[in-house]
């Protein structure tokens, strides 16, 4: 198996680095992004442009209508098939994105999740309307403390899903997010490079620049077009991917709703990028010189190394993270 995984937060430079690596090695890119699978969500998700997709073959982009769900288990199955197909063509596969649950499903495996239950969701929504999501978060803490610990008390969609899973199956969601039989399969051996800016101000400035570029490219019109369909609701997976959370209050509804879309889709003032408790515990921060770290990448992909060298000069730090039982991670 010939593959490399590249992860990192929004605006960290994943896409540019991936294009450089793919062009240098004739690789094909597999998107690891839960938003890019949906058609019609192009600007707000920073989907690769037509020109970029013409330069390098991309997979798992525009494969679902926003009404259709796409699970982490489906991603893992699709990716395994795609990597084999790409390798059979004599090319390496480059897995690129920031949806860590997808990486977890691929590297560690996941149990089959209970299907959505509309009746249970409606019950939870009615309960939240009366008691508020923090109260449901407290309920979740009583039945699934592991999941509750990683969620904000106001993370409505994820609290709802976790409680839905418990009420439908009688099992906490965290039990489904478990490692496969032994965690030592071939997919766990894929090396993972993670671009993680250590100066948050630098990343925030990059996000602000992306925000402005999205506005100039017509992001507001894209959101309005999605909303005008009339069939997209807040409980859909695609709605969360696009940041769809229309407020109950009708006062200034249009302005507030659109601002919420922009913040949550671009990362400005929205939900923070989550990392698993397990990976945080396992993380071992070993300081390396930037020259040594980038040298490892440059040896394999000179163009990518040059791109990362330029990024580092703007304020990135580096560390090496050996993940027990899983892939090694270079964090730049």
Mean pLDDT: 74
Count of runs of 4 or more consecutive helical residues: 16
The 3D shape can be described as globular
Based on DSSP secondary structure assignment, what is the total number of beta strands?
7
Please give the largest β-sheet: 7 strands, mixed
Q: Overview of this structure, please?
A:
By secondary structure, this protein is an alpha/beta fold. It has 16 helices and seven strands. The protein has helices spanning 14-25, 50-55, 72-88, 100-108, 118-131, 133-143, 145-149, 156-169, 173-176, 200-217, 219-228, 237-241, 253-266, 277-282, 290-300, 302-313, and strands spanning 3-7, 28-31, 58-59, 93-96, 192-194, 319-322, 328-331. Strands 3-2-4-1-5-7-6 form a seven-stranded mixed β-sheet. The protein starts with a strand and ends with a strand.
Layout: helices, strands, pairs:
Elements: E1 3-7, H1 14-25, E2 28-31, H2 50-55, E3 58-59, H3 72-88, E4 93-96, H4 100-108, H5 118-131, H6 133-143, H7 145-149, H8 156-169, H9 173-176, E5 192-194, H10 200-217, H11 219-228, H12 237-241, H13 253-266, H14 277-282, H15 290-300, H16 302-313, E6 319-322, E7 328-331
Parallel strand pairs: 1-4, 1-5, 2-3, 2-4, 5-7
Antiparallel strand pairs: 6-7
Helix pairs in contact: 1-16, 3-4, 5-6, 5-8, 6-8, 15-16
């Amino acid at each position: 198996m010939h593959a490399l995984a590249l992860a990192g937060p929004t605006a960290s430079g994943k896409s540019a680095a991936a294009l450089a690596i793919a062009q240098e090695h004739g690789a094909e890119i597999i998107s690891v992004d839960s938003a890019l699978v949906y058609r019609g969500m192009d600007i707000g998700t920073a989907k690769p442009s037509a020109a970029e997709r013409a330069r390098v073959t991309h997979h798992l982009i525009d494969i679902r209508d926003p009404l259709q769900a796409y699970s982490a288990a489906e991603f893992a199955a699709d990716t395994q098939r795609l990597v084999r197909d790409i390798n059979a063509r004599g090319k390496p596969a480059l897995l690129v994105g920031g949806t860590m649950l997808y990486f977890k499903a691929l590297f560690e495996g996941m149990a089959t999740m209970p299907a959505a239950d509309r009746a249970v969701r409606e019950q939870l929504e009615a309960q939240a309307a009366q008691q508020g999501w923090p109260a449901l978060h407290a309920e979740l803490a009583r039945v699934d403390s592991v999941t509750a610990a990683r969620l904000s008390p106001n993370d409505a969609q994820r609290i709802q899903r976790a409680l839905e899973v418990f009420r439908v199956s009688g099992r906490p969601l965290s039990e489904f997010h478990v490692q496969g039989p032994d965690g030592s399969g071939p997919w766990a051996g894929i090396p993972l490079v993670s671009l993680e800016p250590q100066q948050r101000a630098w990343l925030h400035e990059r996000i602000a620049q992306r925000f402005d570029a999205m506005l100039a490219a017509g992001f507001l019109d894209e959101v309005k077009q999605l909303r005008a369909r009339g069939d997209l609701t807040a409980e859909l997976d695609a709605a969360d991917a696009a940041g769809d959370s229309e407020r109950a209050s009708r006062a200034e509804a249009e302005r507030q709703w659109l601002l919420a879309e922009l913040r949550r889709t671009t990362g400005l003032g929205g939900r923070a990028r989550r990392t698993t408790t397990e990976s945080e515990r396992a993380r071992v921060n070993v300081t390396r010189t930037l020259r040594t770290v980038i040298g490892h990448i440059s040896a394999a992909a000179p163009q990518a190394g040059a791109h990362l060298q330029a990024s580092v000069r703007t304020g990135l730090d580096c560390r090496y993270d050996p993940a027990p039982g899983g892939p090694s991670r270079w964090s730049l």
